[in-house]
Structure of Nucleoside diphosphate kinase:
Amino acid sequence: IQKTFLMVKPDGVQRSIIGEVISRFEKKGFQLVGAKLMHISQELAETHYGEHKEKPFFGELVKFITSGPVFAMVWEGENVISVSRQMVGKTNPQEALPGTIRGDYGLIVDKNIIHGSDSPESAEREISLFFESEELTFYKKDADAWIY
Ligand code: GTP
Ligand code: MG
């Protein structure tokens, strides 16, 4: 079963929507297997967003993501990578549809509330960047029989 890395960014933490974000993925039927509130170091930020190193907004992006605590999570479920990206919505909250997290709560591209892995490769990479394997739990939920 697939896993993904999702993270409430510093703006989402400051605006008290961690619970709302968790609630959406829980209600969808996904399972939370790991989570922590943490400050991202400069080094982790640069590694995590390494694909954007050459972009003009890279400096700003790193500064923003290290500006306050984030809520890092690992979620599990069928096609969780692509389905959660749909629930997150387009990168620019002004283009993100209502009903998506960015569409409902964001307004500006550099403060877009949440990060989600965009492929199986990035999910694996980002999960191992943020979590030790002992920090992830594995458990069966009886309600899964009513989801799957
Ligand atoms: P993430 O889930 O955060 O990776 O977003 P994404 O996959 O939807 O977008 P992408 O990986 O292309 O960009 C990473 C992040 O860089 C975005 O979430 C934005 O916060 C930020 N970003 C993208 N474009 C701009 C921009 O033009 N200006 C600024 N300041 N930030 C940007
Ligand atoms: Mg991305």
The longest helix spans residues 18-28. DSSP finds seven helices and four strands in the chain. The pocket of magnesium ion (ligand 2) is lined by residues 118 (CB under 6 Å). The radius of gyration is 15 Å.
